[in-house]
Amino acid sequence: MTISRRELFRLVAGSTAVAAMGQMGLASAMADTSSYRAMVGVFLFGGNDAWNMVVPTDGRFSTYTSQRGSVALQQSSLVPLTGTPFGLHPSFASLKPAWDDGALSVVLNTGTLFQPLTKSLYTSQPALRPLNLMSHEDQQNQWQSQMMRSRGVNGFMGRINDRAPKVDLPPLISIAGSQLALIGDRSSPLILPSTGSIVRNGYSATSTDARVKARQLALDTFADASSFGQMTDLTGKGMSSAYAQAVAANTVISATTSVVDKYFVNPTTGVTLTSDISRQLLRAARMIEARDSLGHAKQTFFVSQGGYDTHVGQLATHTAIYADLANALAGFYNAMKALGLQNNVTAFTMSDFGRVFKGNSQAGTDHAWGSNHLVLGAALAKGKVHGRYPDMTFGGPEDSANDGRWIPSIATEEYIGAIAQWYGVSAADLPYIFPNWSTWNGGGRGPVPLFG
């Protein structure tokens, strides 16, 4: 019995040690970095209540206050998005300079959709809804796979990189563990820790211990196992490739100095940022800084932040985690400016779903659907809030229930598809990346006009 490389990869995909298997047997070459692009997906796990991340500041604010109840913000606390009738949560003050630079955009009421839905269609035809709405696991799967009526087995980032030239060190990089978004049909990610380096347990090149030396000799022999059959040879080469990738990655993430490090500081105090999201984005910035030496013409990153399942005490929780997120994104943007790559790198938020507009009795919010998202990068059309803020009437034409579970007006494909096009995905490949692309590209629908 023989087993193909693809079949073997499907058995073992997801761990750092075997991430290289998707690259085996493929020629490597120095990438052309003259048209470098990077996309950085920031997944906010738990379901971000972005109705408090982006708030109307015009005549709609009084309705916002009355409908939100226990979780409403004070209007005077909001960070104004100059030139628009919207403001950001006060903890996003560190991103105001990016807005003023024209490098921050908002996309309103976005979410998983199988097809455009009215309240009438939502109510009368459940088969047109995405599967298992308001379920954390299912909605995370749908955002990452871009498959709304079936359970995805691979993700949009992985599929983008299926069509990319291959290099020795994968340009598909997670600093948030193994995630579905990163799994392709023939590509797989490099997975980096947010702190420390990649370590080979039990290995020491300078050890004099007989057991360690014997184990290393066995691994060296296993590295060329062609005489032991296809399966053994394939596994041995995969391990050797993964070890080589770890050495290359460690050279970047463990360097004692870097141009980008000094930008990851609190903009008010100057103190070094230590949150996990800031450490992840710092590692992404370092890999971007090393793009030429790594041979990466394009790079795709997945980072994440947890803590957004805010059923209780949301206002206090948001104050802390939004500040961590905003400071990390501001540091990342400033680092890209320092590298002269602010036009070449775009970061964007994703999350399970939005939250119920009406605050609950514990000053928190429950699971809902549509939500708002932030996009960061100087290639964006300046000063734009895209899409339409929903009618805040409970039980109204945009409420899938009776407490503010808004039906999205922008599909995830229209949102992420715009970033994929900017990244360089061809028109011919978009249906492969987004299996339901035809639904969202025509008939008056299409990618959000993020870039300009």
Could you tell me the strand content as a percent range?
5-15%
Flag low-confidence runs. 1-31
Give the SSE string.
HEEHEEHEHHHEEHHHHEHEEEEHHH
User: What is the CATH C level class, in words?
Assistant: Alpha Beta
Going by helix content, strand content and strand pairing, the class is alpha/beta
Categorize the overall geometry.
Answer: globular
Largest sheet: 9 strands, mixed
Distance between the termini: 54 Å
The tally of helices reads: 14
Rg (C-alpha, Å): 23 Å
CATH architecture: 3-Layer(aba) Sandwich
**How many structurally independent domains?**
1
In the CATH hierarchy, the third-tier topology is known as Alkaline Phosphatase, subunit A
Percent in helix = 25-40%
Counted beta strands: 12
Structure description:
The chain has 452 residues and is of the alpha/beta class. It has a single domain (5-24, 34-196, 254-440), classed as Alkaline Phosphatase, subunit A (3-Layer(aba) Sandwich), CATH 3.40.720. It contains 14 helices and 12 strands. The strands form 2 sheets. Strands 1, 5, 6, 7, 8, 9, 10, 11 and 12 form a 9-stranded mixed sheet that branches. It has a 3-stranded antiparallel sheet with strand order 2-4-3, with no helix packed on it. Strand 3 (79-80) and strand 4 (86-88) form a beta hairpin. The longest helix is centred in the last third of the chain and has 25 residues, at 314-338. It is globular, with a radius of gyration of 23 Å. The N and C termini lie far apart (54 Å). Residues 1-31 have low confidence and may be disordered.
